[in-house]
Amino acid sequence: MVAHGIPLNTLKDCLMFLEWLHNGNGRQRLEEVCRNLYSRINNYFTPTFLPEHNVKEGLRPFLSAVSKFYGRLCYDPKPGTYNSVKEKQIADALLECIPKFLAAIYYLEYCVNPTFKTLGGGWWEKNWTGWEEDRPYFWTYPKYGGDLQKYLRAQIGGEYGGLIPGGFGENEVKYNPNVLHRGYPQGAQMAPDLANILSKGNYNFFRSVFVTSVIGNSASRKENTANTLALVRTFCDIVGGESRDEGGTLKKKLEEGHGLIKIPRSICWQDLKTHCAELRKKLGKLFNDDKRFDFTGQSTAIKDLQQEELAKETAKWLRENVTKVRGHLNKIKEYTTGDFGDYYTKNLFPYGFTFRDRFKIQPSDVPNLAKDLSGVINALREGTNGDLDRLVEILNGTYQGVCKVPEPPPAKVPEAPPPGTEGSPNQGKKSEGAQNQGKKVEGPPHQNNGQSGDTSPPSSGGKSVVPASSPGKDGAPGKPGPTGSAAPSSSSTPGSSSKQAVVTSPQDSVASPVPPPPPATPSPAGPPGTPGKSGATGQDLPTGDAPSQKPDAAQGPVLTLPTSVSTSSSAPPGGGGAVQGADVGGGQNGSQPGTQLVTQPTSKDTDQNPSSVTTTAVATASGGGGSG
């Protein structure tokens, strides 16, 4: 709102401005001022309730009551002087003046009317109006102005919780020893005239809670706080009276009010209606229940409102100003104990609250009255979860309660592969070319592994033992023996199809040593073998050359048996040919007779266990080892 340039900082300033409109040069401007306000509010009230002349007719009784009080209070009730002000500036000044002026008048009535004593007021009833502290007096009666004169002479309102102070100068307030002087001898005589100013008998559109809050843009002025809450109550009455499912056109109007906020979400009508019902109940505890509170402005029955338009503007205003309103509520202290007069002076009247049914309250109801005020205020002002903030969240569409769309289920995370998945080492799967994975590796046919070394049966953990090869030496020439059929070699090359029986366990990754087998009876010597070739690798190749082992092929751990121990054999002498397993009986030169252990599977290639493997002793031909 553009600054109107009219001072309204004290009670005296407001009285001079209102007197200017009633009896001063502003009287000729009153018609155009009321027309200006009418043009700004006629969309929110029904035509029958708000014809243009009603704006002026509602303001005149108020100005008349104020002028009467001003004339009795001061020696010289002169109007103010305001040059070059336009009708909109005057209307805006009225919308600012009336709430703060009424808050001060309600407070003054509370202090001078003895019927408020049960609520902590009424103690200024016998203060002499206009009696200055330095005024001389005669005889023996100690007349004094007391707190009444102190307030009227105050220039700042800090002592009164932020209410506008009196602002009068010395000897400006009339002193009247009796009623014949047409003034107020004592404070109690003011009460009837103050009640006329505060009367809500005639509807004054400048006093409307919607007009003072939204049109008057009073969010930053704390004296309009109670009027704002009364406006929220009216808004909730409109929402509660909407019977169409999903809010009909009212809901669409409220969503239009997003304006500059530009939130592309719709209002959850069920949430709004439920929350408004709860808000209405709490605000009713303040304003509707007997022996409770009131506000300085005037509310309007919803039948006299253009409900959708007024609700739309109210929602828009709340979205933009809820933080300021909550800031005022945060300053209202919670009543604990102490003087009611001091508590209400600082926490009730400065925020535009007043009392309802003040003449009927009982002393026993007073403590609960103060607690009701602070209790409702606490519920309204809580951040994020407070009633006002939640209302705005619903209006913005950022809060979705019953209308919340269920979130899509999270994407399925692949489960960990179970034991036996291909490609994982040490899981008992068959994989060509992989080493130390418990696979049976097939070797090429006709390959005789003549490596010298010791072997032992599989451990209890199922870990296979693979003998390491050692470089051979030239063996002693022997007699040629009969040629036997070559068995598959225990060595292999990557990519070959030969298989080796190996038992693994997923739980054991390291072979456990086992005790050596018991001694066996020596096997009979076979016929002499063929002379070994110089530089051979210890393999007997009947035809062609067998592929050599990859130099980078990893070798398994080796368990060596004592060379003096040999295993029994049922094979005929010289009939072994090339066999699987290590040469147990022979030394490095391979010239001693001995046997080999052959591990034979009794089940399929994969997922073997130790119980599925048997070990058979096979005798080699004497001297068939060649070079070691």
From TrEMBL:
Residues 403-628 are annotated as: Disordered. Residues 423-438, 446-455, 593-603 have a biased composition (Polar residues). Residues 456-474, 482-499, 560-572, 611-621 have a biased composition (Low complexity). Residues 406-420, 513-530 have a biased composition (Pro residues). Residues 573-589 have a biased composition (Gly residues). This is Ribosome binding protein, putative.
